[in-house]
Structure formats: C-alpha cells, structure tokens
Fold this protein.
Amino acid sequence: MLSLLIIGLPVAAVLVTLGLGWRPSTPWVGVVADAIVLTIGFAAALHDVGHRAHSTVGGNLRIDSLSAFMVIVIGIVSLLASWGSVRYLRHEVESQHCTSRHAVQYAALMQSFVATMLLAVLAANIGILWVAVEATTITTTFLVGHRRTRGALEASWKYIVLCSLGIALAFLGTVLVYLAAVHAGGHSIHALDWTWLTTHAHALNPAIMRLAIGLLVLGYGTKVGLVPMHSWLPDAHSQSPAPVSALMSGVLLSVAFYALLRFKVIAVLCLGETYPRVLFVTLAIMSLALSSLLLLSQRDLKRALAYSSTEHMGLLALGAAAGGPLAISGVLLHILGHGLAKGVLFLSSGEIALADGTSDVNEAGGLLARRPALGGAVAVGLAALLGFPPFSLFLSELTMMRGEVANHMAWAVGLSLVALAIAFAGIATIGRRLLLAGPRGQATGLRTPWSAMAPLVLGLSLCALIGTLTWPLVPLLHAAAKLVTS
Amino acid sequence: MTDHGVIASLLALTSGVVLLGAALALWRRVARGIVNALRVQGLALGATAALLGLQLHNPLLIVTAALLVTVKGYVIPKLFARLIHLDPSSSETEPVINVPASLVASVFLTMVAFVATRPIVDSARSFPVSLVPFGFAAVLIGCFVLVARRKAVSQMVGLLLVDNGIGLVALLLTTGVPMLIELGGTLDVLLVVVVLRVLVTRMHAELGVLDLDALQELHD
C-alpha cells in the first residue's frame, strides 16, 4: 500500500492543480505533496531497513531499502524544485512571460514528472521500469520547452529524439532479457521481476544476456547522460526553467542510474564481474574526460553545471564498476549529495536569471558584491559540488575511492582525481568570474528575498548535515547497498 | 504444403516487408512517400502479429495485431498527414547523405544485423527466431535515418522505424512481451508522436519551415 500511496500523492497534486486553475497558491500544492512523499519515504526507510521487500498491486510495485532511499532522494530534490517553482511561476505570470494556463500546465507537469520518477524506482519489474522511464521523457519535454524560445525548442527536440532512441534500445534489451527468462523457465510478467531475475540469473543464457546488458546500459545510459549519448544534456539543462533543470540534473539522471545499478547485479550474477565492469568503466572514462575538459571552456553557468552533472555521473559509474558494499554505499550517498548541491545551484542560477536576465557568468559578474546573500549561496554550493568538507560529497567521493581501492581498482582513484582536478579548475574559473570579477559601478549590497533564499539554505544545510552526521543514514545505505552487490 | 507451412512463408514475407519498409523510407524523398513507407511497415508488423497468433492459436496476439494495425497503420500516419500539409517543403531535397549512398549503407547495416544476432538465432534454432535479423536491420536503418536526415518529419519517421523494428524482434522472439508492457509501450510511442507533433507545430510557427538545420543555436 505504501508504494501506491507514494505515487498517488503527486498524482493527486496534479488533479488538484488542474482543478484549482491558476491562483497564487496553486504552486504550493506540489510543495506540500513532495514534502509528504519525503516524510513517507523516511518512514518506509525506517520500517524497511533489514526487512524484506513489500510488494503491492498484483506484485507490480514493491519497496525495499534501495527504493526507499531513492524515494527520499526524489522527495528532497523535488521539494526544493517545487519550492523554487513558486517564485519562478509567480514571476513568469506577473511579467506576462507565460499565461496562467501555461503556469498551471507547468505545475501539473512538474508533479507528473515526480510521479513517473517515483514509479520508476518503485517498479517491481523491468517492464514497468521501462514504461516509467519513457514516461519521464514525455512529461519533461514540455517542461524543457516551457520558455518557448528558439533555443528551448531546439533543446526539447534533441531531448525527446535522443532519449526516445536510447529508451527504445533499452526496450530491445528488455525484450532480450525476457527471452532469456522464458528460456530459463519464467513465464508471463513475473519473469521480468527484479527478484525473479536475480534469483535465476545463473540460469539465463549468457550469449543473449551479453547483448541484452549492452543494450540496456547504452539505453539507460542515454538517460543518465553518459558520453557518448550525452549530447541532449547540456542543451536541455541550459534551456529549461531553473527548477526543471534542478529536478532533471538532481534526480532524473540518478533514477536512470538506479536502473543501471539494478541491472548490474543481474549481469554480474549471470556473466561474471568482468563484462559489466568493462562497460561501466568505458562509459565512465569517456564521460569524465569529455565533461571535465569541456568544463574548462564554459561561460554559461547552467551549461557548466550540466557538464558537471555528466562528470559526477562518470564518477558514479566508476564507483558502480568497482562494486562491493563500500563503493556502492559511496555511490548512493553521492547520488543524494549531488542531488542537493546541484539542485541548489540550478535554483540559484534561476534567481540570477530573474535578477540579471542572463546566466552568462561574465555578464552576471560581481555577484558576491552586488547580491551578497545569493552570491554566498552560490559560493557555498560550488564548494559543496567541488567536494569540500563538511558537505556530504566529500565523504561520498572518499568512500567511493576507498571502495575502488578495496576492489582492486586503485587506478580508478587516480583517474577520478585527475578528472576532479580538471573540473576543479573549470568550476573555480566560473566561480571567480561570476562571484568576484565583473562590471564595476553597479549597485551593491542588494537584498535577496527570503522566499528565494529559503530553499537554497535548506538544501545546503541538509548537504552539510549529512556530511557531518551520516550515522542516521548508515543502516539504510548499508541495507540498500547490500541489495545491489552480489 | 501444410497449413503451418503457408503461415511460415507468409511470416517470412511480412518480416521481410518490415525491413523493406525501412529501406523504402531511405529511398523516398517526398515526405508523403516516406510516411507511406512507415505505414507499409506498420501494417506488415500487424500482419506478423496476426500470423503468429494463428500459428500458435493465441487470441491475445490477434488483439495485439488489431492494436498495431490501428495505431501504426492508421492513427500515426494520420498524425503525419497534417504536418506534411503544414509545410509542403518537408521533402528531402538535400539529405545529409545522398540516397544512393544511404541505400548502400542500408545493405551494410543489414549484414551487420545478421552477424550481431548470431547468438540469438543459434540459441533458439526455431523458425520464427531465424527472422529476427530483419527486425534488427530495421532498427539499425532507423538509427541511420536519424543521422542522415535533417527534416523534422523524416526524423520522426526514423524514430518510429526503430520502434517497429524492435516490435518485430519482440514478436518473433517471445511472441510479444506481456500485455501490460505491450499496452504501456504502445501508449508511450503514441504520446511521443503527439509530443513531437506539438513541437513541430511550434517549430512551424517560430521558423516557418520544418527543417532542423534552421535550429542551430546551441553548441559549445
């Protein structure tokens, strides 16, 4: 019942939003729904740690520690994003950039997007997972194009064509897994269950599974934004409204990565450690190399943040390639920390765009002097993203590296460090231009309203809190990591 | 020839038409012709499902066939018709890769498909499975269309060619995925087409043409 309730909340929010029409209070509906999702996610996590999975709806939905953890991640970041949407929508309607009908559409699509992501992590079988991930593409396309500029149009076209193609390949992979499962004695939809597949993985035909896993990694990897299927990502993230970018970068990528984590367990059980590791490492190396080098030449804040997402996904892929409980705990913690830090930074970029009308770091320069509060939030957010303590990304990067060493991938640590150093140079340059340099002679010390700062402060405090006090999360992380290590 | 022998030959024919439809979409330049190639392919896919249903006495497959014929043979081409009407110039006058070269590439891709599906064909050794390479070839040609054609209509067709190819593979390998997934998948594809159509309409309002080369703002 719990999983149905979790998905039901954002669906209910969609209906209420459509029923209410446009009022100043309409965007708050989503905020309330996401806050409740987060609370239930915590409750489920407390309840589920160490227990077996609960399934509902004819065994098509289920919740275990890993799903509960992902519900928490989705809950936190979508709470921040819908909170940020309140100001964005008010501003768009007041400045007549969008009609009230489009504002309602936006609010409804945001919650549908959240619902499809929750469905993806609560799906008990890989068929429903596929339908849900495809549905995230459909709901987000209009959100990417919400600003109705030429660039937004181009970005949404590229987004839907590339992601549909990727997800079509994942469907082909799913069909092949089904074939292998039927040969191994499975029948009907239950042959696609995560549980059935993991328990029968050794009986699946390895030749078919090799092809299937390759297609699945390529397909879901498109949605994760791993190079070479990443080219939709910088465009979509830079053209979307800021709260949408926050949600896409903060959780959509990780939801697709969650699928990869689950498939990897089946691959390891069926094909041994080497094949999935080679796949993950190849994608990780390409992603890390390309994104960190491209980060060096970015002038647009949102584009830079997008490339940084590809880089972090590369780090996650490297951690997942290593496998083992330690590395996977690090991967999961990194998903949460990255979601928070990236969410906050994208929301700040939205505030900068509201105030200065641009996200070009040279035009919006001198932010720290002009708007100390907002500039401060960006500075702290960038520090978190770069992996400074006390933020949780420091801890998770360290944990992933320890896990890599423990699993005989010490070279991966060297690789991560080189990529992190190059990315550091890129992001530090962006930060310096945006925060310190910039046009002189403009008004300084401008206030940023509390309504804008609240979600930013919340996100950053949580990120720091998790980095210093991880113990409440440790049992959950261990239980979740145990599910995806064979 | 037994009854099953006839069905088997017809299956080989319809699967072949699925591949032929993909090649046809590469060969035609007129937008209407490209969409017709897609329709032929969709109908062949529906016919494959129906034949498999007859062979295996599986009524669910007949339902799938009806669904496929309605959606791919009627609804989707109908959605395209309005778009072509919107911009008569969405024919491929200057494809990125010209037609003869594209056809040579499609032959090459078909050979790749036969090689890549070896493990699947060998693992089963049953008749419908030996037709799987046709589906894979259609998928690869669809991907090629996405790369080689820059008109919005052609790109949408490319995506659907991929989808039909995968549909054929699914039918031949597993006599269709479970019904719930089949329905979810069909609905998703239909929604993707609808979304793309809205984007194309917006593109027409913004640019006056349905050409992706007119959209080249975003790059590094």
The CA atoms of residues 327 and 402 of chain A lie 7 Å apart. Chain A touches chain B through 51 residues (CB under 8 Å). The first helix of chain A runs from residue 2 to 20. The mean pLDDT of chain A is 92.
